[in-house]
Amino acid sequence: MACIIGMSATTLCPTNDYVPKGIAVIKSNTVNGLVRFEQSADGTRVVVNINVTGLVPAGDHGFHVHQNGDLSDGCMSAGAHFNPYNQTHGAPNDTVRHVGDLGNIIADSEGKVVREYNDTQIKLSGPNSIIGRAVVFHALVDDLGKGQGEREQESKKTGNAGARVACAVIGIAKE
């Protein structure tokens, strides 16, 4: 991560005692809203706050952080799930999972999602920061790496969450 040093020698990059905040602004043809991320002061968790509309059909949708913040080819250029430790796909509370595996979110009958929860594997600073990567909402329920039979191999990579319906780059939020 590049740091900017201002005229007064102020460094504009996270420090050890800095509590960073991230934001992804979702603006697609149908899905709109915000995903906010806030690192806890002790660095043990990130609070994820989702507030989006237009996610259809009602029900569970896979929600992940993907490797790249490149959206030049829409959500497809975001790459695979963020997986710096080369693990298999899993549920948010599994010890073995991609860092970017954030599980499922539930859209109500009007396509709205309002949810806040903690995640202990994503970080907003350091070598495995999610800043500059992409959040992706998927069309289908994520099977959390538990798929069987002919779906097992893809389950271990993607959770069989289906098409990418909306995405955004995670940026640094203003204080």
Describe the structure in brief.
It catalyses: 2 superoxide + 2 H(+) = H2O2 + O2. InterPro entries: SOD-like_Cu/Zn_dom_sf, SOD_Cu/Zn_/chaperone, SOD_Cu/Zn_BS, SOD_Cu_Zn_dom. By secondary structure, this protein is mainly beta.
Descriptive account of the structure:
Pfam families: Sod_Cu (PF00080). Residues 31-170 form the Superoxide dismutase copper/zinc binding domain. The chain is mainly beta and 175 residues long. The chain has one helix at residues 152-158, and strands at 21-27, 32-39, 46-53, 59-66, 72-75, 101-107, 113-119, 134-138, 164-169, 171-172. The strands form 2 sheets. Strands 7-3-2-1-10 form a 5-stranded antiparallel β-sheet, with no helix packed on it. Strands 6-4-8-9 form a 4-stranded antiparallel β-sheet, with no helix packed on it. The radius of gyration is 16 Å and the shape is globular. The relative contact order is 0.25. The model is unreliable at 4-17 (pLDDT under 50).
